[in-house]
Amino acid sequence: MISPKKLIHIARKWQRQAALKRKRISFPSVSQVANKGHFVVYTADKKRFAFPMLYLNNYVFRQLLAMSEEEFGSPGDGPIILTCDSSLMEYVVHLIKRRIDREMEEALLMSLCNSSSKCLLSSCLCQEQSSHKLLVCSF
């Protein structure tokens, strides 16, 4: 049989360990640091993206970061979290790689703003009509 003092000691030890585990940041468990010349962002659904620093020159990307700062504040010591989901982020990356024109960038950003900074790719369709590019969102 365990003595009451030893039982109290074990219980306190378990309480301390439980308290430490609650204080841990459980968001990204990836210990990998971004490669040189890259930065890391997380989407609202906690998917990790690593981008080259050149993406910071892109207008859409800068606006996504501004929306994120507006929504969540400056990350300080934590990760940068964007307000969009991973599907939309993949779509934005696709558009950036295609080097879309300024009108298309504006249309994409307007659709994000109109949906309170949260637009899912499943409800956004990009259509090309003759020589005009049109972004259509349904909510």
From TrEMBL:
Name under which the protein is recorded: Uncharacterized protein
User: Pfam families per the record?
Assistant: Auxin_inducible
GO terms classed as biological process? response to auxin
Q: Which family does it belong to?
A: Belongs to the ARG7 family.
Per its UniProt entry, which superkingdom is the organism in?
Eukaryota
